[in-house]
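Think of the structure tokens as a kind of shorthand, similar to the way a musician reads notation: each symbol stands for something richer, in this case the local conformation of the backbone. In the example below we present two proteins back to back. Begin with the first one, reading the sequence and then the tokens, and try to describe in your own words what changes along the chain.
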Amino acid sequence: MKDGHEARGARREANPISKVGFVGAGRMGLPMIGHVAARGFEVAVYDIDATKRAAVEERKARWEPHGAALAASSDAILVCVGYDRELRALLGPGGALEGVPKGAIVAVLSTVHPGTLVELAAAASARGVHVVDSTVCRGGKAADEGTLLSFVGGEAQVVERLKPVLASYSTDIVHTGEAGTAQVAKAANNLVMWSCLIANHEALALAQRYGMDTETLRTALQMSSADNYVLRNWRANTMAWAEDDMDIVQQMAADRGVALPQAGLNRELCRMLKPKRFKLEEYGT
């Protein structure tokens, strides 16, 4: 016979998710909180910045001042923190999410090193907790609109159970494989995206120097083989995480002994471009 703890875990896994916890109510997390609450889930939110409480409550979610309480009461927890170290602090010994109940799902939306996710997933599995990575693409505008792309890495049955929550803010959900693979997919996405953003600046800056109307060219390029997402959504990208994204790519490449010369160059170009982004008259000077 199962003890009470195991029985509750089994019931949690057998029933649809109804209680969703969010850790992190930043630029991406806040609109997602609103979408999940609007879909009828009971949403609780924890963030170390208490000034975000009003914005959270405006989106019909409950503010939870204690991470441990949120962890204990949630069927699924979506984590939107910035860095590997913050994720480890949350899920590691003594962390706010150490007490996640058996059978619950922790979905890491943060962009981190795949190895970090694999390590944390293995440790959580020993406690009967499912850690998956559920990275998102398409940026803040898509978060606001609820049209994100979610890459999800984890056991197929766990991903299926989580999908109704992800569908609250995602129009596309791709199961990438085992835990950690969604981080690989996100790294690949970021590598291509930042390459495109740099190439777009160079192409449009060159055209500007020759006196061509850059909006006319940008519209034309969207009909050509040069079309890309950041060209279609020109001026929408803040580049807030460009350097961090490329740092992760470089770490991953070093771990596997892969030379990625363009990625290395783009990391430096992103550093240069960020303060001048979309200022074509300043590009290349």
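Once you have a description of the first chain, move to the second and do the same.
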Amino acid sequence: MDLLDALTLQKILLIAAVGGLLGLDRTALGQFMISEPIVAAPLIGWFLGDTAAGIVIGVVLELIWVLDLPVGTFVPADSTIAAIAATAIAVLGSRGDHAIPGVMGFSLLLTTGMAPVTMLGDRFIRSQNALLAVWTLDAEEADTDKRLVTAHLAGLMVFFLKSFVLLLVLIPVGLGALQLYNAMPGTLHAAMALFMHLLLFLGAALVIRKLSRDGVDRYVLIGAASSIIGTLVLHVHPGIAVIIAAAAGWLGVRYRER
């Protein structure tokens, strides 16, 4: 099968268009949280026929970037583009019907490495959108309303094109890199599969580390210890253990607040 046959190109074009719409939800329009990796990646996986791969990739990226918020002048990596691109590369580039762990791990490694490109794109787009505000303020009083509407629509279009163009470039580049990966020795594939399994622990560790700045980590440990004791020592039902763990963590937070 060719690397970029007509069907694959059509899918990439559709994915880029959907990604452009999902990208608007980050800051430009709506903010209904559908742009979050845990939502966007499974949607793309479902579209490509491998929802499971989308869920796994979405969960990993959500854990890694869940606390990186676009507040003030801080421009985080575009986790939406990373989630969509990683899912598309993993599914479209897999030799079978479903993406395997090694391919998913390589796709995640590749797209997270492309994060600085998305950050540069965001900074450029924001600087261009700032010019729309100047253009609106320079209008005559009678034209201000028209220019304001035009500026809003133009800003939305610019944000859409940012995600659309980046996905249109990053996915084919990723598929090309995946062809090189497939030609590598099997030991590298095994290492990448192990890397994929460890990413979930890495994501959880990053969340705990970020939360620990506010002193919450001890209550995460309290919850974990409670669940372990409940299931291994007291032999309670796992569902009950989860409730006990949540209650222990909540009581710890309440105690600290007082």
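Compare your description with these statements about the second chain. Residues 78 and 118 are 6 Å apart (CA to CA).
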